[in-house]
Amino acid sequence: MSTVGEIIVVSRCHKLLDMRNFTGARSLVKMKKQLGKDWPILDQVEAICDVIIAAENRLPNRFMDYYGMIRLTRFEPVVLDDFKRLMKLLDWRCHGLPSSKEAAHYAFQAWSLLSKPVLKDSYDLDISSPMVHLGFPEGSSFVPKEQNPNQNTGRGNDNEVVVISDDEDEGDENQEVVTMFRTSKLCKINGKRVKLIPVKKKTKDSSTSNVKKT
Questions:
Q1: Residues forming a β-bridge with 162
Q2: What is the torsion angle, in degrees rounded to the nearest 10, for the CA atoms of residue 199, residue 201, residue 203 and residue 208?
Q3: Is the overall model pTM greater than 0.85, yes or no?
Q4: Which of 26, 32, 60, 108 is within CB 3.0–4.6 Å of 135 for a Cys-Cys bond?
Q5: pLDDT tens, position by position, 62-79
Q6: Are 3 and 40 within 8 A, CB to CB?
């Protein structure tokens, strides 16, 4: 038997889904779950919201977020049992929730493509394009991990970029003195030759260090 609290939440979910406020409905579900509620209606509403939000969250070049439409992230396996569980949650005959038929249609559309290896491979290739990666909307299942631009220059603050050759400051006698070690790396940044020197090797005592510009 449903409690008064559950009946109130069901009513609010119906209204939010009728208004197509899927973000609001999903937020309400998450809040109730955090409070320890395990009413079946919560999983059903959440599934509807997840699928439709993913379907409306178009990717670059108007790609559909097919993985998100069956509640997967980009690199998760596509499993039939998971799809069946999702379709059960979306079955409007079980709960009569608004937009459940729409969500089921989107989920089936995504499954029809991702369950076919040839179509899935073609889709994966399309969404793997570097130009596409630059435009993935926040929150989609395709947002790639950003590459750390300093990943090849050492560990965080353990290294410091020091200019060791620049025509404009060739005569600068106040340039900070840095001891060069074999572990330092020479590279070019903005037209200047620089070395990456471990900070702990740095010394400001010009009386004990002699450095030549290369």
A1: 195
A2: -170
A3: no
A4: 60
A5: 889 999 999 998 888 999
A6: no
